[in-house]
Amino acid sequence: MRRSTAPAPPWRGFLSDPWDRKGAPITGARGTQQGMEPTNTRDPQYYHRVVDCQWACPAHTDVPQYIRLIAQGRYTDAYMLNRESNVFPGILGRTCDRPCEPACRRERVDGKPVAICRLKRVAADLRESVRHRLPEIPEVKNGRKIALIGGGPASLTVANDLMPLGYECVLYEKLDKLGGLMLTNIPAFRLPARVLQEEIAFITDMGVDVRLNTPVNSLKALLEEGYDAVFVGVGAPRGKNLELPGRYDTDRIHIGIDWLESIAFQHIDSVGERVLVIGVGNTAMDCCRAAKRLGGTDVKVMARRGRKDFKASDWELEDAEGETVEILEYHAPKEFVVEDGVLKGMKFDIVEWYEDDEGKQRARPLEEVLIPCDDVVLAIGQDNAFPWIERDMGIEFNQWDMPVVDRGTMQCSLPGVFFGGDAAWGPENIIWAVEHGHQAAISIHNHCQGIPLTERPPFGMNLVTQKMGIHEWSYSNDYNPASRTPMRYVDLEERLRSIGTEAELGFNVEETAREVQRCLNCDIQTDFAANLCIECDACIDVCPLHCLTITDNGEEDDLRQRLTAPAENLAQLIFVSEDLPQTHRVMVKDEDLCVHCGLCAERCPTAAWDMKKSDLLIPYAGHETWPTLATV
Amino acid sequence: MTYITKPVARHPKMRHNALGLEPRDYEGSMSTLCAGCGHDSVTAALVQAFFEMDVEPHRVVKLSGIGCSSKTPAYFVKEAHGFNAVHGRMPSIAAGANAANRDLLYVGISGDGDSLSIGLGQLCHAIRRNIDMLYLLENNGVYGLTKGQFSASADVGSVSKKGEVNRNGPIDPVSVALALGATFVARSFSGDKKQLVPILKAGLAHSGFAFVDIISPCVTFNDHEGSTKSYAHTRTHMYEVVETDFVPLRREITAEYGHGDVHAVTMHDGSVVHFRKVAEDYDPTDRGAALEHIADVRKRGEVPTGLLYLEETGEDMHGFENTVEGPLVELPYEDLCPGSGALAELQKEWW
């Protein structure tokens, strides 16, 4: 599984198109002749966007709330809140691609995001048993039978959502263990087997009919067994090859994801001393670190491009380099050098990149080098493969031989057949697979009830004041200037001794207590009531980050430049109030850098500003409507 | 008041002034005044003025007496010198400090109680001496610290929070200052920084006593219907007689004036104050006419605002008293303390 690090989509209006990367703004804030319309903060998506981490998370995990629960020592509650949206907190707390962290407001404020992912692991590590808090499974089934193909995170999420509704789920897995690429591609030093197995068991123990060692060889035949719906979550199982001279003259050239799978199943337990890993994505990082543990002493990662273009996450690069892996830039593979059937090394062109006349990046070879090695691991990407889906059964495939899948409903052109995870649109990551699973479950539930798939349950929002007394809030509003807590690792020598030794130690109680205080509580919203404002400027004067302005209304571009501090981050919304009673100007708030300290509300003499917790109510299969206090 | 300290986090793209400082470098400790107090806005306007004037914090002296207003020096320029004087006696301290060191920038903060009741005499003599300082009178019409009795600036007919009607005539600080010969007289409103900040900057540049009366509503005791010093009343009744724009010495004059009569006054340090008259025939350099005009506006029940009078004579207390150039601390010891022989020589005058 290539776990991409693509940035979170900047816009996401679920009701129209859940993953539209352009989309339209979701607030009422759009320009008119007189200026901007007042922002509709009762649209759940407005405050959702203010919670950057939750907005960036494909599954909308309620990060600030679970961090608050951890701060209170309520690890089990934090775990259960996580599980609601991301289903695998223990797994994701170690392996998630963390789209939330680059989005975190704290990064914009002091340079480093809150260690969200590792706090998630704390909740998973320190929780008590949650078995009794898992949903009850009805004994009397609803008579609908669903086939899930592939035992990875997407299929497991569909089962997790549908089993409590009375569905009968049959899960087909070609290997003899569940987990999909979470099992085969993520080495045990990053994800211990017990964590993986326990979280999978929470789902399979709901009564899923798991059929291991049962590859589906014909979708047509499967459909004839009378399933009400089929979900395809088979991942992107084919590693890309590198067709260069000498490729087939030795057996010491490995496809990365297959090689990792063989390690996971203990079919491979050693590697040569000198290992070259081709490619510089996150899978390459797993490969090089695995090589270090199987006997590789001189492990090099070979990249064609410069560091700024690497696909691997920064933290994975750091982890690899911390284990003395060498990363070489600007090396374009040219030839495998094999003598008498023995791999001697690899030839590379050292290249420099330039822009051609059409503005395209091109490589110009400068010189050739030979780098000796004993093994080569190819980690240059993955492809999908659907040889088992008959092309005459009504499922449309596009020019890249990928099924045509609707982004909103997860359904392909054959009604009742759904795709998700890497199988849908190529390699993504675990958390996207989980979200695909949630959406597919909603679609399947609609499909089985004869409701159009586009009639999806809406998001809701609760909005409740956090005022406890004069200048007293139910959350910790004091800004803590602590810097990000670094992760501690097992001592390097011991870490490399066994592939089963988890590299990261996780945060201890003190580190956790410190890191939770870095969270800016972005879900505690500065909620403004224009009719109460007396325009005393107190909020504007006290705001430490100059977020607030009272000014004449105007077009958004103009208004953004006229604020106390210009609102130059266009990815962040500006709030525009109704006209103020005394001067008919408007209150404008740039959401970009607000640290949610609540000083505006503390200094407000009329409580026009209040700190209110926005609780995003996320729709799942079987939820008809949300009870909500806010008028939506 | 607020229990947390103001977050240390700063806007990464905040502008810096010529000294490399940010506006927040001119802040002080967290205000303990009531939420929404006008005085906090005046403090914020001062912070902005100091920032924009590139004032070195250690060159500022903050002085005050007693009252809510007199607490505010704690809330700006924490690196500055400060003196919290006895009630109403801040002008004396300012005069003494200024006599000893004429190179510093003196800012006195006072209130309507401190300046118009117990300290009225002190204020009058400070104006007479033309002490080189910026003197702010944060005027809210009530004694907020003692729970809302009428002050000497409360208008006739103004209603207290409890419902009593004020019958004593007010002292209008601006008219008093004009009558006493003040060289810089302004009135502004805490809720209008667009007007207030240029006035404060001009006041800092003025050589002599710069008097600014600032309507600064007491949000707790005097912001109700019936009050003539509330946010709403001031907004609906303030009448900007003259618009002020301050152009510091080394900036190019880029402001454009589309309409209205523009009048420029060059300050002692070379900076320029531009006036754009809003009221017809108003001349901010004619003391008699200013007094008359203000009286007319007040008769209509309106509050005249703006930099109402400016006279850049350049002669202050030091000029009147023929003192030495420069601060006393920089005088050589033998000049500062010429010895008993010199003293005896001096005393001969009275023999």
Rg over C-alpha atoms of chain A, rounded to the nearest angstrom? 26 Å
| Global Rg of chain B | 21 Å
Distance between the termini of chain B: 62 Å
Strand content of chain A: 15-25%
What is the third-level CATH name, the topology of chain B? Rossmann fold
Number of strands of chain A: 25
Poorly predicted ranges of chain B (pLDDT <50, ≥5 residues)?
none
What is the arithmetic mean of pLDDT of chain A? 91
Largest sheet of chain B: 8 strands, mixed
Largest interface (CB within 8 Å) is between: A-B, 34 and 37 residues
Description:
The complex is a heterodimer of chains A (632) and B (351). Chain A has four domains: 26-50 and 459-478 and 520-632, no CATH class; 57-133 and 483-516, no CATH class; 151-237 and 384-449, FAD/NAD(P)-binding domain (3-Layer(bba) Sandwich); 239-380, FAD/NAD(P)-binding domain, CATH 3.50.50. Helix content of chain A is 28%, strand content 19%. Chain A has 22 helices and 25 strands. Chain A has a five-stranded parallel β-sheet with strand order 5-4-3-6-17, covered by helices on one side. In chain A, helix 15 links the parallel strand 10 and strand 11 (326-328). In chain A, helix 5 runs antiparallel to helix 8 and helix 14 (282-293) runs parallel beside helix 15. Chain A is globular, with a radius of gyration of 26 Å. Chain B has helices at 38-52, 68-71, 90-100, 112-116, 120-129, 173-179, 193-205, 231-237, 287-299, 317-321, 333-336, 340-347, and strands at residues 60-64, 81-84, 105-111, 133-139, 142-143, 149-150, 184-189, 209-215, 238-240, 242-247, 262-266, 272-277, 303-310. In chain B, a hairpin with a 5-residue loop joins strand 5 and strand 6 (149-150). In chain B, the strands form three sheets. An eight-stranded mixed β-sheet of chain B has the order 2-1-3-4-8-7-13-9, with helices on both faces. A three-stranded antiparallel β-sheet of chain B has the order 10-12-11. In chain B, strands 5-6 form a two-stranded antiparallel ribbon. With 351 residues, chain B is α/β, with parallel strands linked by helices. Helices cover 29% and strands 19% of the residues of chain B. Chain B has one domain: Rossmann fold (3-Layer(aba) Sandwich), CATH 3.40.50. At the A-B interface, helix 7, helix 20 and helix 22 of A face helix 1 and helix 8 of B.
